Amino acid sequence: MRRLLLRNFVRGPLTEAAPAPDDAALAELASRVNQAARRRLGRTLAIREVDAGSCNGCELEIHALGNVLYDLERFGLRFVASPRHADVLLVTGPVTHNMREALERTYRATPDPKWVVAVGACGRDGGVFAASPACVGGVSAVVPVDLHIPGCPPTPLDLLRGLIALLEGVSVT
Amino acid sequence: MNWPHSIVGREAWQAAAARLQAGELCLLGLWGEPGCVHMALMQSTSNECSVLSLACESGRYPSVGRLHAPAQRLERAARDLYGLEPEGLADARPWLRHGGAYAFLPTEGESLHQIPVGPVHAGIIEPGHFRFTASGETVVRLEQRLGYAHKGVEALMAGASLERAAQLAARVSGDSTVGFSLAYARAVEAALALEAPPRAHWLRALMAELERLANHLGDIGAVCNDAALSIMHAQCGQLREQVLRAAQACFGHRLMMDCVVPGGVLRDLPADGERLLRALLALVRAEFPDLVEVYDNTASLKDRTVDTGILTPALARQFAAGGFVGRASGRNFDARRTPGYAPYDKLAFEVPVVQAGDVNARVWIRIREVEQSLLLIDAILRGLPPGSICVPASPRAGEGVALVEGFRGDILAWVRIGAGGGVERCHLRDPSWFQWPLLEAAIEGNIVADFPLCNKSFNCSYSGHDL
Q1: How many interface pairs between A and B have CB atoms less than 8 angstroms apart?
Q2: Which 3 state secondary structure label does DSSP give B404?
Q3: How would you classify residue B392: left for phi > 0, otherwise alpha for psi between -120 and 50, otherwise beta?
Q4: What angle do CA B451, B452, B454 make, to 5 degrees?
Q5: Alpha-carbon span A82 to A50, nearest angstrom
Q6: Which of A99, A135, B10, B193 is the most exposed place for a label (fewest CB within 10 A)?
Q7: Which chain B residues are within 8 Å of A79, Cβ to Cβ?
Q8: Contact B119/A at CB under 8 A
């Protein structure tokens, strides 16, 4: 343990520079976020992740946001354990019929103002599962979506750019 | 290279069920299609594999789960998907098809209380429901309810082209995308009597070992994190990230999704690929031993993992548990060895096995497998043969089956290709089918607070199971 701590002390932090916000995401958000909500939230957002039937690829990359190289929390973005504490629902998956009610209930449990970010090709329109009788097909078919982050799965940088755009869109007038 | 396939009557089907019950056979899979039910079996001693099929008159067949518990959830799933009724199966509840109230098993006793968890969990986890019955802090029973991630993969597979089906196979369980693509590709190749070029076999193994490395590193860190040793999580997460970046640089995708296809692979190692991977090996070899030392010498961590969530060897054997779950409980099985497939027949590697069956054992198996994967990647880079990486598939009707070792354990793929060259039916069986029920057994008698630790040490796939 001592050797590990010493090595980390000597080599310094591994965290990488922040990426620029995603322009497309900024444009998508510009029309949706109102001034009052921006003032209320300040520069921090609490995120509740909801897996609505993804293949878990998106979850792996969302997990990676927390590693030392991306270090999501330095941007004021953090994952919370309950929708009651959340400003943002980060939803993955094609929304299976079996998850539909859980997603609706999670949305209702999240206090206003709130935003929904649909992650991945499945979150947008069901992706490769779009035609399935077991899927609703896309997050927006169940709850209103404010921002899409495309990719299968989106890389941590894609996710970070989208979330920073959300933060900018919410907190900068 | 295809397995023997027999169409049997009810007597032979029931005889096989009795041999499963007696432990002479291991169940590798049980799945349905309209009017027919199939079972993949392996001889317990010789490891010979075969497939049995039974026509279901008026949609009924003799239940295997009645005699052999590991078949029960598979039979409930086949009933939900294809309306096939397993005669004699006591459990009439749906499994993958939700809707309406679900009757959890009754629990009786003084001062018992229930804790419902999920399907939306507190962390960034896949959806599933756990119903704990506890007496004070001690878990008396855990009952799982899965199926929330059911996406209808088999229905989408039926009638799909080989390419479209390959995309679906790659998305059955994202963390095992290489494993599932490989299982599907090998089953299609068995059906079409197609042989991928040697270089493709070696590149597939390279991707599979990178996937194993990334997942095991992530899991080791996550188990330690669930015992509040966050430095291990940070260090392992950093190494995992470097594996994914190397995968991105070499194969164009961090998880190597859609790289393995029937006939070979779509991406060759780029000119600087070997250098990148050698740098990755050097990094992991330099840093991983220190992490193993921290794991081994932190008493407060060992206090949580040793003797926690014990899975007995008898249960692991009965359920034919694959991967680190089985190998941490004495089951010496690895699909890379038996039935075995190229190029592992030309590569030397060890399959670590221990008997203890606790969380600590499952962590140690992963640690040893990380070391083996590093050796394998090194050997693959040295032995990578030249040549083409993909041969075109010529359409013809046929049926094929394959068993490959994903990071979690053995993945079974069965496919029937129609005369038009498209997929008629395809079934992909995740190792989690036989590991999820064992988690219910392993948690019994442990405290509720140790469940995250046990759960992470199993790390079963929800999506892979729910299909």
Answers
A1: 146
A2: strand
A3: beta
A4: 60
A5: 10
A6: B193
A7: 123-124
A8: yes
Q: Is B171 on the interface with A (CB under 8 A)?
A: yes
B residues 32-71 lying closer than 8 A (beta carbon) to A: none
The pLDDT score that the predictor gives to residue B345 is: 94
b/e per residue, B85-110, with b = 16+ CB within 10 A? Answer: bbeebebeeebbbbeeeeeeeebeee
> What phi and psi values does residue B148 have, to the nearest 5 degrees?
-65, -30
Length of chain A in residues, anyone?
Answer: 173
Q: What is the mean pLDDT of each run of 10 residues along chain B (467 residues)?
A: 87 95 96 95 92 93 96 96 94 91 89 92 92 94 95 95 96 96 96 95 97 97 94 95 97 96 95 96 96 94 95 96 96 94 94 96 97 97 95 90 96 94 95 97 95 95 95
Alpha carbons B308 and B451: distance in angstroms, whole number: 9
Question: Alpha-carbon distance A47 to A119, whole Å?
Answer: 13
List the structure tokens of B291.
């992490």
Contact flag B149-A98 (C-beta cutoff 8 Å): yes
Query: Can you give the length of chain B in residues?
Result: 467
As given in the structure block, the two tokens for residue B208 are 């599979």
* Inter-chain residue contact A62 with B124, CB threshold 8 Å: yes
* The model's pTM: 0.94
Find the CB nearest A4 among B122, B175, B294: B294
Residue A36 pLDDT greater than 60, yes or no: no
| A172 or B104: which leads in pLDDT | B104
What is the DSSP code string of B182-206? HHHHHHHHHHHT----HHHHHHHHH
Two tokens, residue A66: 């927390």
Give one DSSP letter per residue of A149-173, joined into a string.
Answer: E-SSSPPHHHHHHHHHHHHHHHH--
- For residue B413, list its beta bridge partners: B402, B428
Could you tell me the CA-to-CA distances from A66 to A82, B138, B183, B230, B237 in Å, in that order?
18, 32, 31, 12, 9
Residues B319, B465 contacting (CB under 8 angstroms): no
DSSP letters, B202-262, are HHHHHHHHHHHHHHHHHHHHHHHHHTT-HHHHHHHHHHHHHHHHHHHHHHSSTT-TT-EET
Q: Which residues contact A27 (CB under 8 A, 6 or more apart)?
A: none
Closest Cα to residue A11, out of B280, B367, B286? B286
Q: Does B168 touch chain A (CB under 8 A)?
A: yes
**Contact residues, chain B, for A50 at CB < 8 Å:** 120
**Residues in Cβ contact with B317 at an 8 Å cutoff, skipping those fewer than 6 apart:** B23, B330, B331
Q: B390 vs A33, B199, B256, B397, B404, CA distance in Å?
A: 50, 9, 16, 21, 19
